[in-house]
Design a protein that fits this description.
By secondary structure, this protein is of the alpha/beta class. It contains 9 helices and 15 strands. The protein has one domain: 3-Layer(bba) Sandwich (FAD/NAD(P)-binding domain), CATH 3.50.50.60. Strand 8 and strand 9 form a beta hairpin. The protein is globular, with a radius of gyration of 20 Å. The termini are far apart.
């Protein structure tokens, strides 16, 4: 059985950035799936700053469309509409993740597959995974959970630290004139969270976050309800779904326990207001890698992710103004920060 110092579960922004920055004296393998995460695929200003501060240019081929400077916002239930300034980079998430993995050192073994079981003892951890229909195992001294909102690492080792989860459903459609290029949609009758419309080249995405129970029915209901704004999506080209996590307090953010560590969304480093997680995944992955240059990695990781936890706390204070119908209505009617017509 192959043995490594680190087994990294997940090859998205958190896992890729961790592997890139891990001290070369360590051996590591990364187990990940090559799939498009139905998250909209936008780089926030925080994510853009991450690359700017590291003097890293983004390649042209990862972009899906032009820069987003304005987003239409609809409150279907309360029949309100506003336009707000936002500054996102519109990317192809699959190409973006693959580009990030290109920075991972060649000595790190990459395994395209899915981890299905993790067990540990005083000698380390055994990870069982399925790749190409075949089941295999690897051993490691440390396990890094960078496997997103439905993290097997978190569920295995920190089951008591529960975090609110939703199902993200997203469909691709051909562009038509009735659909805005970029939109954020609220509708209490369909979801307690939000939905989005994002143009991607010649296609557009319509997706949202829904309570797990009857999530597909809620998704289809919302598609019908946006028609009252003249938005007719047509026939979907493809459908994707995954689990999303959303912290309701900072206690739900779990760095690790000294041998098992969590990064990115698996740890709870995701915005409770916008669900933005790419920037936090990269920052936490980098900090965690640097932690292993110290004698007390868990202490270092907790200390240097304090800023991320503080920002999430601020986002928790902001969330009611987005997701409480009463407060959202007050904000939208006031026109605060909205683009003037």
């Amino acid at each position: 059985m192959r043995e490594f110092d680190f087994i990294i579960i997940g090859g998205g922004p958190a896992g890729a950035v961790f592997a890139k920055n891990l001290n070369e004296k360590y051996s590591a393998c990364m187990i990940y799936t090559e799939s498009q995460k139905p998250c909209g695929g936008l780089l926030s200003e925080d994510a853009q700053k991450y690359f700017t501060d590291r003097n890293t240019a983004l390649p042209d081929y990862i972009f899906a469309d032009s820069r987003i400077t304005c987003v239409d916002t609809f409150d279907i239930d309360q029949r309100l509409a506003r336009k707000y300034r936002r500054f996102y980079l519109n990317i192809d998430r699959l190409k973006f993740d693959d580009w990030l993995r290109g920075f991972v050192p060649k000595k790190t073994e990459k395994i395209t597959g899915r981890a299905v079981k993790i067990t540990g003892d005083e000698n380390g951890f055994r990870v069982t995974y399925i790749s190409g229909g075949k089941q295999s195992e690897v051993r490691g001294r440390y396990v890094i959970g960078a496997d997103g909102g439905d993290s097997i690492v978190r569920k295995t080792f920190f089951p008591e630290r529960k975090i609110r989860r939703y199902v993200s459903i997203q469909q691709s459609f051909r562009i038509n004139a009735s659909v805005p290029d970029y939109a954020c949609i609220f509708d209490r009758k369909s979801t307690v969270c939000c939905a989005w419309i994002i143009r991607k080249g010649e296609n557009m995405l319509f997706g949202g976050a829904f309570e797990p129970k009857d999530c597909r029915e809620s998704f289809e209901k919302l598609k019908k309800r946006i028609e009252q704004y003249g938005i007719h999506l047509g026939q979907p080209i493809s459908t994707e779904a995954c689990m999303l996590s959303r912290p309701e307090n900072t206690w739900q953010i779990v760095p690790g326990n000294g041998r098992v560590f969590l990064a990115g969304e698996a740890a709870g480093f995701v915005s409770p207001s916008s669900f933005e997680g790419i920037s936090r995944a990269m920052y936490s992955g980098e900090i965690l890698a640097k932690a292993f240059n110290t004698s007390r990695p868990l202490k270092y990781y907790k200390k240097h992710t304090a800023k991320l936890r503080f920002v999430i706390m601020l986002k928790l204070l902001k969330s009611p103004f987005m997701y409480s119908p009463f407060l959202r209505k007050a904000v939208m009617i006031s026109g605060i920060t909205a683009v003037k017509k």
